[in-house]
Amino acid sequence: MKSAICIHNATVLTGFSIMEECAVYIEDKKIVDVFSESRFNKKSFDNNVKFINAYGSYVAPGFIDTHLHGIGGYGTEDMDKNSILKMSEILPKYGVTSFIPTIYSMPEPELIKSIKSVVDAMGKEKGAHILGMHLEGPFISKERLGVQKEDSISPVDIELMKRLIKASKNHIINMTVAPELKDMRKLALFCLAQGIVLQAGHTNATYEQMLEGMQARILHTTHIFNAMSRMHHRDPGAVGAILIHPEMSCEIIADGVHINPNLIKLLFKSKPLDRLVLITDSLKPTKQKGSRLFANGEEVFFDNVFYRKSDKVIAGSAMTMIEGIKNLVSYGIKLEKAVKTATANPASILKIQNKGLIVPEYDADLVIFNQNFEIINTIIDGQIYQEKK
Fold this sequence. Notes:
Blueprint: E1 4-13, E2 18-27, E3 30-36, E4 49-53, E5 58-61, E6 63-68, E7 70-71, E8 74-75, H1 81-90, E9 96-104, H2 108-121, E10 129-130, E11 133-136, H3 158-168, E12 172-177, H4 184-193, E13 197-200, H5 207-215, E14 220-221, H6 237-244, E15 249-253, H7 261-270, E16 276-279, E17 293-295, E18 298-303, E19 305-308, E20 314-316, H8 321-330, H9 335-341, H10 344-349, E21 366-369, E22 375-380, E23 383-387
Parallel strand pairs: 1-4, 1-5, 6-9, 9-10, 9-11, 11-12, 12-13, 13-14, 14-15, 15-16
Antiparallel strand pairs: 1-2, 2-3, 5-21, 7-8, 17-18, 18-19, 19-20, 21-22, 22-23
């Protein structure tokens, strides 16, 4: 017997537009139809269909978080598949239906172990889909480390890259690199042939070096404004290159600390909408309770974001995707645009198939949330994983 769900009386954010008083019909793991409420009639469905009355709440494609290190006390630095699986179980609570675990720069043995933990978890998840992995390094700049560790980064090394790809079983989706590093073009062309999306980040690149990276298809960027060369009137740097060139896409951390909200509004005015990707960059202690919190093996403290306790450098975000969308809307961004940065845009930029839109034949990964940005239901592969009572 086929499993089926019909969500009706909904405001549907399809990825193209807002459709009020609509219904979405799901059968097995796929979206079958999106239609007007005026056509909804329970009697026209089989008895096995589960009906969800959205009472006017929003139905959106499930959120895709393409850059997060951990949540709920579990993180990629644990180098344990069970931690990755726990992340998968927790994320639907916040509307996330797919994610890309992000791995810090580490010495090669630890990096390989962390990569393998993600591979071992894939296909065993009981929540959000594990799409693959994002390597945040090790080919990054020592001048723009953030809280990455200098003894864990590496000069460009194609043989090392081959070993990382082998360990990943070809599941590296995206990788943060510094375009200015020696032999980066060679690495970029190699990764391009492997289907890996490179993104400029933790970089001290000049404007000209960013352009050279663009010529090698480094067209996406990691947490804009953070851990990258700033814009100067004589050298636009990495930030300037992203703002000047519409081809460049960028990650946004919309927690109000990593980027001033007025700069986020500038991004939405100056960049094509489909070039903007909302991420959380959330750390292991996000939503974790306890007096002592740790991320990437170092103690952190929370004050709207996480700071490394030893030197008070920002370590990462404590935001969830639904909180990020809520923040964007509070900055004056239209809801449908905010949602697109968390759904259709990451799917398009990172070549994620059949996700990010509410259209027939796409995966039945959906989130229902109300006007207060409270998650009501999260649906993954046509199964309800989160249901507000």
